[in-house]
Amino acid sequence: MAAYTKRLKQDLDRWVTRGLVDRSTADALLADAVSQDRRSLSFGFVLMMMAALLLGAAVLLVVASNWEAIPRLTRVVLLFCLIFVGYVGGALLKLRGHDALAEGAWLIAAATFGGAIALIGQMYHLSGDEEAALLTWFGGTLLAAAVLRSGPLTIGAGGIAVFWMVAKGFDLWSGGDLSRAYPIVAALVWAVSLWTGSSYARHLVALSLVLYAVVLAFHYDVTAVSLVLAGVSALLFAVAVLDPKRTEQIVRLDGRLDMHALIGFLTGAAMLQFDHMEETATLVLAAVIVFAAIIAALLLAGRESRGLRWIAYLGFTFELCFLYVTTLGTMLGTAGLFLASGVVLALIALLIIRVERRMNLRAA
Amino acid sequence: MRRSNGLLIAAIAVALVQIGFLSWIVMARAAVLRDGREVILKVAPVDPRDLLRGDYVRLGYDISRIPTSLLVEPPQAKSTKGHMVYVRLRKGADGFWQPAAANLDAPPSGALAPEEVDILGRAYDGQSLEGDTAIRVEYGLERFYLLEGEGRAIERDMNVRNFAVVVAVGSDGTPQIKALMDGDMQLYQEPLY
């Protein structure tokens, strides 16, 4: 039993003896808390997913090291068996209630599918098809996620898609190009995540869209893309704050759209400032807007969301350091730099402590 | 009971779809190896290593650069972006096959002579088609995978001696590496599976 439910049980027992609540209400409350607890991500589940990813990586590495001792047809058949056993065995485990083991088996099967694509490419000396291979892997994994209604597989497919987008966008392969299809791919993952009930996959997609904007900025115009990113993010933030209930019904991000919007806004602002590093007037104006935005975000949505508060602090610190390095940093000697850094850090820490205390007081 | 059957059937279906897809790739490639026309191409080397795929040597060919003068129809497009290239190969007196004609997106018109074959490649993006120039073409034959550690030795030999590759070309022009030759000596022969 998790710490919270344990404490709740003690509290309820005390309340019952004091006559504050009756026994049946207490049992109902406890049962509800326990069921909620089970639904949330347990540490063991996360460990199991990591173990599955490691085993999957082992499969991929075996392929990569050109395992010549075994005839290649045997290797292919071996991988086919692993795929079959992974999916079907996972289904059997799921039916017996071993959710974590089941999802782990499915992840291994999906990773093996990717490994088999690479091995076949190697068998026939296929070249210049990394993109097709990755997209095939993505498609197979997303299909498995949809059919088996698996959250972790949805996240896996989303991860492959993000890797494809980044690798292509940043020219990992010769003739690299912007992955124009990424919004469609992201929409597919989003749609499947609604069916599989994986809000983590949606968070991944939301973050990846900010990353996509960064790639877009590299390929086109930094200023224009940054302004659009910051503008759209500000708009989304406003919508999320003004009508949280309806927004949540549409985006289903565990009520965290405001956090993603803040990340988007800060990313846009950062790119803009990096691009205009030499123009002090623009920098100062941008910095004022960023500080104002961070404070506004804290006041409007900071109370409910600890995550948003920490993003805000991070953005604040980053902005301050950036300003400091670009303007003051060159004027001070090394000793002065350390002194000033210490003072600035202390100020930030004080600010965070005060804000946190006020938020907690208000929440209480 | 119904739910349990449903999930099992779903899992089996996913496994079969993925395995079926992989088998289809293997079959298609094996078919080209088995039934394709054999041609021999002269090799020009480049350099090894790729994380996910073990050791390989990168290969370049004489036919990797196709002069625009070989195009049988003057191109409508200004750039190579997204274009496929069909190259008509003819067997030379030395046994190596050389490009005789080329066309964008469709095989060159006219029947094939007995010692000719059409091979399909993809033009690298962003090359100009205007004026008298040469376009770089990729055939999917640009890598040869080797046992770990053998890449360097072969790469070194390639700079000294003439290497060649035996390629099987399918009826639709899909090429597939069949063997790597060091001069007249065959280094590797690819089994069908």
From TrEMBL, chain A:
Organism, scientific name: Pseudaminobacter soli (ex Zhang et al. 2022)
Residue span(s) of domain DUF2157: 13-153
Highest taxon, organism lineage: Bacteria
Alphabetical UniProt keywords: Membrane, Transmembrane, Transmembrane helix
Pfam families: DUF2157 (PF09925)
InterPro entries: DUF2157
Keyword presence, Cytoplasm: no
Record bears the keyword Transmembrane helix: yes
Record-given protein name: DUF2157 domain-containing protein
Membrane-spanning parts: 45-67, 73-93, 105-126, 155-174, 180-197, 204-220, 226-243, 280-301, 308-325, 331-353
From TrEMBL, chain B:
Organism: Pseudaminobacter soli (ex Zhang et al. 2022)
Pfam families: GDYXXLXY
InterPro entries xrefs: GDYXXLXY
Protein name, UniProt field: GDYXXLXY domain-containing protein
Domain of life: Bacteria
